[in-house]
Task: structure prediction
Amino acid sequence: MIIKHLHLQDFRNYSKKEFAFSEKINLVIGPNASGKTNLLEAIYLLATVRSFRADLESEMIGYEKPMAKVKGEISGGEELELILTRGEINGEKTAKKICRVNGVNKRQGDFSGKLKAVYFGPEDLQLITNSPARRRKYFDLVLCQIDLEYGRSLLSYEKGLRARNKVLEAIRETGAPRSQLYFWNQLLLKNGSYLGQKRREFIEAVNNYRLPTFGCQFQMEYDQSLISEARLDQYKEEEVAAAATLVGPHRDDWQILMGDLTGKEDLGKALSAYGSRGEQRLAVLWLKMAELAFIVSKTGERPLLLLDDIFSELDFKHRELVWQTVGNQQTFLTTADQNQIKEDWRREAKIIE
Result:
């Protein structure tokens, strides 16, 4: 799986830019704040329809521009296009994301996963240290690429969740009949159960992934907020009082535990609380390598590997581990210092400045 060409228009700091890529290694060189991460973000958007850093579409649209376009040609000749808007174009309301394949509009769930990518950058440490929302988003970014039904279930669940919360508010504020909850309960139960099942499968695959060269072992622990009729009934009064749904995958969380390879140290050390920055960095590297292996095992395709200025944060041994992976699929590396990149890789790479 590769991306051959990319066209950006009014995306971040790119007013209009065309790129042609190597099928192997693409080295993006430039000073900090020059837009290197923006290029990786655009590629990742074509894979997932979501940014790995922005929460709002407007953050990715050029200053005072009404919309941004990201268009790429991938292997097989398909053309993927994503249009980001501020909610209107020329005074007319429009979707904030418009997805097209070969010029034909597609639903987000049918667009995501046409291209597959794994992103690894400095901000991924936030997967360990930041809020549960960030970690739930990680689930979705991975699983939407390899499972169309997951993407559809996620969109349906999120829509149902918003509607159910409005009904809860109406019950609290106006005494609306509780029977109005039934339809939304069934929608959340159906889709929420599927999301939870697929998240458990992903965590199981990650925990079966081993890298002995790390000198330690990691484990992903799932704090699942189960959704069932019994739990919805159990929390019904609290939900009305809060006007919010208190159980379900939108309340899920996970953490990474660490132990040593000898088994003398139990896998009970929570990295978010007790891990050093170096240990947290290694845990994220392990997670990303496991993510790559998971996508390959589920699809039979090797995803694009997007490495965003990671080598300054890794020691020699773990840089070598990354290098062993780089040659197996189309790879994009960004750096402000090309001397951090192996000389033989620099010779082979296409340089983008």
Observations:
- Residues 131-298 form a domain with the Glutathione S-transferase Yfyf (Class Pi); Chain A, domain 2 fold (CATH 1.20.1050.90).
- The chain has two domains: 1-116+301-353, 131-298.
